[in-house]
Amino acid sequence: MNSKWPKGLPYPTSWLRAIALSATFFGIIHLFGRNIGTARDIEKLATVAWFCEIPLMAGYHYVAVQLAEHLERSPTNSQNTRNIGSWQHWKEGLAGFLVLFLALVVTRPIVDAIAPISYSMRYYYRYAGDADKAIFIYSILSTIASAYLYYWKIPSRLKSLLVFCLPLINSYLKTQLLLYIPLISCLPILAAGSLVSKLNLPGTLLVLAVFLAIIMWLFATAAAFAAIHYYGVHWANWIASWWPESFPGYGNLQQRKSQRHNASVSKSFIYHEISWKLAAHDFTVLIYTNVLSSIVSLPIYIAIFQESSAEILEILGGALYLIWTTIAVILWHLWGRKQAAKIMGANITKNKTKAKAKNGKSKTQKVKSSKKLETPVDQIEVELNQMSAEFGMTSMRPVRKNLHPEQTKWYVFRSGQAEGPYTREQLWLAQRITARSNVRREGETDWTRAGEIAELADFIRSQS
Known about the structure:
Blueprint: H1 12-32, H2 39-72, H3 86-114, H4 128-151, H5 154-197, H6 203-242, H7 250-257, H8 260-263, H9 273-296, H10 298-306, H11 310-344, H12 348-373, H13 379-390, E1 410-414, E2 417-422, H14 424-429, E3 438-441, E4 448-449, H15 454-463
Antiparallel strand pairs: 1-2, 1-3, 3-4
Helix pairs in contact: 1-2, 1-4, 2-3, 3-4, 5-6, 5-11, 6-7, 6-9, 9-11, 10-11
């Protein structure tokens, strides 16, 4: 925005987003609220209106972008001047969803303080007129709050916080998996044990039955861990097959799909070696966690054996769970996930070395083939060039020509996807690129505006 804009005052774009949020949210409540009979239904309607902001704000952003393109488009050039993928529209919808929630939370106490309790929406049907006033006050305050939330870039800041906390969240979910899978695998063993206990077996057979039950539990837990790793790969590969390129996480999904673990899931589950290695690694992390948490929680175990109050025992049990989870998250975050990554991509380095060797061979073959394609040297033309140089003549005859000159291949970003490859001339004739079009060379991943590339910028100026 302009540097002359007053500091502390939201930009016009922030106000437009805030007005669109409040108008649609409170408009839905005002339109459908009078046909609902209870306060609980009003709260349900508000929740539905809140979730409706995601597609509505995405639609507003799409219309605004199309209008801006229409206004910026020159009369002689019918090509789009902006290349914005569909994710950008949905990203705006999610940002509005978050901003509206924060604005309503911040302004609700102010509304309750300014207006009497009868103005509250939960008393909508007892005081319909006062409720309209409360909704009006609520909408004005939430609009102001939303404008400042957009101005302070709260969605981007929360996104950065989420990206920072995402590894910890993944570690926590993994530890819960390590906790509950053994417990679930133990349930059939306990059911079989209860049946065996009714048979009144001798002591030797009972010990043997307990030993077999433990072996069966270990195998069932290992098989469950391996199955989760194996079929989780199928799920990840399926998502990677249709995930849009313009959406976030596309690169990570494609990179994971190319890993050794994900690329070898066509094998049978029983013979899938990497899944069983990952299951053994999970068991190792589980054993280390149980040993460390048992040492740290020893005073709590002593207190549990000496305590008889149900409330105190519940608090001590919660403390045990908290200690176990904390140790498991730290252990998995600092050590476990790195070892799992090594197991999943054990031959990535080897594959990269092979790929480099293949690329080197292909380059040498291309050089040899290009040399073969060149025309042989004409000795007569060489002698004529030498004679011209001796007599001071500047014109020279070409000695050899390359029959197949190399041309850079380009991709252009259109309608949320890459189109190409094209030559530089095809970009101009077929795609009608401008300096604002997003392009990239073949083999690259980052998009750049054509005006920022010297080769294309000079070519566009020469054509226009």
